[in-house]
Amino acid sequence: QSVLTQPPSASGTPGQRVTISCSGSSSNIGSNTVNWYQQLPGTAPKLLIYNYNQRPSGVPDRFSGSKSGTSASLAISGLQSEDEADYYCAAWGDSPGVVFGGGTKLTVL
Amino acid sequence: QVQLQESGPGLVKPSETLSLTCTVSGDSISTYYWSWIRQPPGKGLEWIGYIYYTGRTRYNPSLKSRVTISVDTSKNQFSLKLKSVTAADTAVYYCARGGLQFDYWGQGTRVTVSS
Fold first, then answer.
1. Per-residue exposure over A18-27, b if at least 16 CB sit within 10 Å of its own CB, e if not
2. Are A109 and A9 in contact (CB under 8 A)?
3. What CA–CA distance (Å, rounded) separates B51 from B38?
């Protein structure tokens, strides 16, 4: 069972806007930065969003992140078929150490 | 361009020690933190721990008693040792740059624990 809670699946049609939630607590998301990773099938994860809402160079601005209290969200606008992947949130926890969400499998219908 | 490459045995016997090395190119290991992360088959990501080039480490509390991460700055490498492995340690093991924000990853190496 993961410390950060994500829905196991999400879906949308091309062009739609999809959001993926990540729920934590005051000891992780509530007091630390959140990062998001995209894992395409059969590949290593890729940093998608860091510090809640910053995009590394090369990541399209269709991807955005936000945080409210002890939850964070990843939004994907203008959904494309190549966005079909697993998405993971991560934060520093009070164990201490990095904690990941269980991952959300995004399907583009 | 920063590249990371994991290497090590793909098969380890139960109760033995899993040993992996990550070779870094395109960047000096004497900057940043460097981490190990694993992913069991069909499951999510689990952070194992990180090391700084000074040797400072931090481990996942659930694995702390079995994990050692070390660094060799002369070879631009860092390594993972996980002792007393069981089938539950079967996973793809990734090395990555960073201690929380992992911006470069290796391709991953699959390790199976089986007799």
1. bebbbbbbeb
2. no
3. 16
User: Which one-letter DSSP state was computed for residue B30?
Assistant: T
A11 contacts A106 by C-beta, under 8 angstroms: yes
| Alpha-carbon separation of residue B74 from B29, B77, B90 (angstroms) | 9, 8, 30
- Cβ partners under 8 Å of residue B29, min gap 6: B53, B71, B73, B76, B77, B78
Given this model, what pLDDT does residue A80 score? 97
**What's the pLDDT at A46?**
97
Among the partner residues B45, B59, B61, nearest to A100 by beta-carbon distance: B45
Q: Which two structure tokens, joined as six digits, stand for B76?
A: 């631009």
What's the mean pLDDT in B49-57?
95
Residue A53 amino acid letter: N
The pLDDT of residue A96 is 80
| A43 → chain B, closest CA residue | B107
